[in-house]
Design goal:
Layout: H1 7-13, H2 20-31, E1 47-51, H3 57-65, E2 70-74, H4 78-88, E3 94-97, H5 100-105, E4 112-113, E5 115-118, H6 126-132, E6 134-135, E7 137-142, H7 148-155, E8 161-166, E9 171-174, E10 183-189, H8 196-204, E11 211-218, H9 224-234, E12 239-244, H10 249-259, E13 264-267, E14 273-274, H11 278-289, E15 293-302, E16 306-309, E17 325-327, E18 343-346, H12 347-352, H13 366-376, E19 380-391, H14 408-420, H15 426-444, H16 452-464, H17 472-479, H18 484-506
Parallel strand pairs: 1-2, 1-5, 2-3, 4-6, 5-7, 7-8, 10-11, 10-13, 11-12, 15-19
Antiparallel strand pairs: 8-9, 13-18, 14-19, 15-16, 15-18, 17-19
Helix pairs in contact: 14-15, 15-16, 15-18, 16-18, 17-18
Length: about 500
């Protein structure tokens, strides 16, 4: 809640002729920043315009915080106009108008409006104002039927600072112009020449115009590089190719991130493909919900054109099954299967938090990236609409491994513990423990029998080390909520802790 100096003294000045409902709504709106963080001119001698004067409370605050600015108020309602005249009519800094035409006729030499606030009922005046003035900041209310995305697309080219208060209670501010590239999609390509054309066809035909496709040829031994160059020649500006020596999928994705220019970043594996509306829809979701991450659904794709719905985690706030909307508890997504390619991520957020793919980890590098990115996302928007087709059964996929390759999990969690435990909340660390438990349980369910004993011993040790910040009681709560295989691993780790404590006591 916002606190204003002398706020209640201003409230007491509101004439009794103003309906209590309008007065109380204005109080609530100001305290909760209904029209965003700006409520007055940011310039010492700026000019502000309120279209819909309401109770006059906003004007009183404006006069307090920008005492040298001038204010124009348009109020067509005769009763409210009379109340505003009694409240503000004697102040030479304030000029009242009955309608927009009256303001335009008497605007004198005004060319710039430093701050404009427009009520929903008067939204139609916005375009007339844009035609006549340079507007530095606009806060306006839009109705249920209006889309934040659509209105912002129309207004952002004209106004440097824009705040849209949606009648649903959502609001969104924009202080930057619409990006030239909204989304950069990174496609690591190695040994997928047979599947790469289908992947790239699905991307070059995206309905989002402001999209760049970055294909990273990771020293592929087949024709991936040639195929990518061919698409770049056919789609200049839309397809960018990076050729590099082979370094693994993590290094390829990082190379793509290094050259990406989009506001958001997405990833598509070179052997998968997406629907043509995926990135337009996800980008709209980030705008509508002011989200750092937008997530869609996906399908498993098998040879012969067979697809199967995924077993997904639904965590939105809309509908009976919570299949869409804002994820109000982002930590619920942290334990899901690594599916980095179904999302777009705010690029600045990744850069600010140093989130990249760990190149020393040669497989399953998507697990640490997903966990870190989702753990720091302030707002996540989701839909169950399936956009992504995740190919199954291709020879060479890491997910098919059953041998020593699975021991990479210990490198992964050593890396994540150093990144997460020292700087994250207990609920995130708790989810990291759950992810490690589930990962080891999954690995032990498929690893070659002669490796089970060694893997189990290392898993117990890994689960014992590094989670001291979580209490034993907390760990027993986790124990009761995981599957039997994971529970057995954690039980053994807890026993190891007790034996270590006993040994230390005896010494």
């Amino acid at each position: 809640m916002i606190r204003f100096a002398n706020f209640h003294s201003h409230v007491r000045k509101i004439p009794l002729s103003v309906p209590a409902s309008i007065r109380d709504e204005d109080i609530s709106r100001l305290e909760h920043a209904w029209f965003g963080p700006r409520f007055c001119s940011q310039r010492r001698n700026g000019v502000s315009l309120f279209v819909g004067g309401r109770s006059g409370l906003e004007c009183l605050l404006h006069l307090q915080y920008a005492p040298n600015a001038s204010i124009h108020v348009i109020e067509p309602d005769p009763a409210l106009y009379a109340s505003l005249s009694g409240l503000l009519g004697q102040d030479q800094r304030v000029t009242l108008h009955n309608d927009l035409d009256g303001f335009l006729q008497n605007k004198q030499d005004i060319e710039v409006l430093d701050f404009v606030r427009v009520d929903d009922a008067h939204y139609f005046t916005v375009w007339k104002l844009i035609k006549h003035f340079q507007i530095r900041a606009l806060a306006t209310e839009i109705s249920f039927s209006d889309s934040i995305y659509n209105v912002s697309e129309q207004l952002r080219p004209h106004i440097p600072f824009l705040y849209l208060a949606h009648a649903s209670g959502r609001g969104r501010g924009f202080d930057k112009p619409r990006p030239k590239i909204a989304v950069s999609v990174i496609v690591p390509a190695y040994g997928v020449a047979a599947q790469l054309p289908q992947c790239l066809d699905s991307l070059v035909n995206q309905t989002l115009d402001e999209l760049e496709i970055i294909v990273v040829d990771d020293g592929s031994p087949d024709k991936c590089g040639e195929i990518a160059d061919g698409y770049a020649a056919r789609y200049p500006g839309r397809v960018v190719v990076v050729h590099k020596a082979n370094g693994g999928c993590a290094s390829a994705r990082n190379a793509g991130m290094d050259v990406a220019k989009g506001q958001f970043i997405g990833f598509v594996d070179g052997d998968d493909w997406v629907t043509h509306d995926m990135y337009a829809d996800l980008y709209k979701m980030t705008i509508e919900d002011a989200a750092d991450v937008a997530q869609g659904g996906y399908k498993f794709a098998y040879e012969g054109g067979v697809t199967k719905d995924s077993d997904d985690i639904y965590a939105g706030n809309l509908g009976i099954f919570k299949r869409s909307g804002v994820v109000e508890q982002p930590q619920l997504l942290l334990t899901g299967q690594p599916t980095i390619w179904r999302r777009i991520y705010d690029r600045e957020l990744l850069i600010e938090n140093g989130i990249r793919f760990p190149e020393h980890i040669k497989r399953f590098d998507d697990l640490p990236f997903q966990f870190e990115a989702l753990s720091i996302a302030r707002r996540i928007s989701t839909t169950a609409q399936p956009y992504y087709f995740y190919r199954q059964g291709r020879v060479g996929q890491d997910i098919l491994a059953k041998d020593e390759k699975l021991f990479v999990h210990f490198e992964i969690f050593d890396y994540l513990k150093t990144r997460i435990i020292s700087r994250m909340r207990a609920d995130v660390i708790s989810q990291l423990l759950r992810v490690e438990l589930n990962t080891h349980a999954w690995a032990l369910g498929r690893i070659d029998k002669h490796l089970v004993s060694d893997y189990t011993a290392r898993a117990i040790r890994s689960l014992h080390d590094g989670y001291e910040v979580l209490s034993t009681k907390h760990k027993y709560v986790i124990l009761a909520s995981v599957g039997p295989d994971a529970a057995e691993l954690l039980q053994n780790a807890l026993r190891l802790k007790k034996s270590s404590q006993s040994a230390a006591f005896l010494k």
